[in-house]
Amino acid sequence: MRLKLTLLTLLAAGLAIPAAMASSVNGTDRTNAARACSSLRASLGPSSFGKLYTSNGACVSAWIAKAHSARLHASATCRHNGLKGRVLASCITAHTRSSLSVSIKSTKNAAKTCASSLATLGPQSFASTWGTGASAFGKCVSSTASGKPAPSTTPPSNNAAQHFTTSLTALNGSGVSGSGTLLLNNDKLTVHLSVTGLETGQSHEVSIRGTPSGNSTCPTSVADSNHDGTISLSEAQPSVGNALVALSPTQQTGEQLSLSSSVLPLTSRTILVLGKTVNGTYDATLPVACGTIAAAT
Question: Facing residues of 182 across strands?
Fold first, then answer.
């Protein structure tokens, strides 16, 4: 069945967790947070780790919230697939670790980028962008890890509207494909995207993605690092980057929406579609189609 998505509404990226599924921080969250901090401290070294966190306890406190959020997201995904008992528990554990692994890697890369920037620019120039004090380095890492530019970067002011196109090709043998156009007028963006081959009755996350630096690209077979024949979201993430803006299906037309400067330039971004049934179980996080964004000719 051909499903056509006319994508016009830009929402904040992320999966909403129903209130009924919310839970308190538990020992698993604390253990995962401590494990994340151990990995960061070993990778970054005392100097960069000390600039990012005032102490190991401060690091664990910061990562408990991330670990808790990752577990709730994993629980929502696994329960949506109808899993129960030990299979559900294993699914939640695997998804939580995968999500945290991506966040840890992004933080490591961002911290190394900021350390290099500090060394190159010097404290004064670095402070002109990120401020002074103990939180400056952390602001740089947080912004870089999320794919946002420095605070001084603002959207270009152009009198003429800019037109872009994208062509989505299938990933993981999904058979999903599509094409679309994007219209950027100063800081207003309208997206029209037509996608075919999506599974009926299932939710499919569609988002504009970008890497902290350089161009976001669609993953190839080389991304399949564990050689299981499937490119998971965590395997695709180094290529496509983080979700910057979620695209939500809507029947409205002619709506213009404000675009954050963190998404620009569009030609360095990709559009990624998720969601596929594998061995009888629907995986809402599996990449099924991807396309880069290019300037219209």
Answer: 164, 191
For residue 150, being part of any structural domain is answered with no
Q: Give the chain's domain count.
A: 2
For 58-94, the pLDDT digits (tens) are 899 889 988 888 888 888 888 888 888 888 888 889 8
The CA distance from 124 to 127, in Å, is 5
Q: Which of 117, 145, 173 is at the close of a domain?
A: 145
What is d(CA 177, CA 169) in angstroms, rounded to the nearest whole number? Answer: 5
Whether the Cβ atoms of residue 245 and residue 207 lie closer than 8 Å to each other: yes
Same domain, 139 and 224: no
Tell me: the pLDDT tens digits for 160-189? 788 999 999 999 999 999 888 888 888 788
Which stretches in the chain have pLDDT values below 70? 1-23, 147-159, 248-257
> Is residue 287 classed exposed, middle or buried when 0-12, 13-18 and 19+ CB atoms within 10 A define those classes?
buried
What is the value of pTM for the model shown? 0.51
The values of phi and psi at residue 170, to 5°, are -70, 145
Q: Which residue has the tokens 């780790």?
A: 49
Burial class (CB in 10 A: 0-12, 13-18, 19+), 147: buried
| Kind and range of the H or E run holding 39 | helix 27-52
Distance CA 208, CA 248 (A): 11
- The answer to whether residue 164 sits within a structural domain is yes
**Contact indicator for 278, 230 with CB cutoff of 8 Å:** yes
Q: Write out 175-215 in H/E/C secondary structure.
A: CCEEEEEEEEECCEEEEEEEEECCCCCCCCCEEEEECCCCC
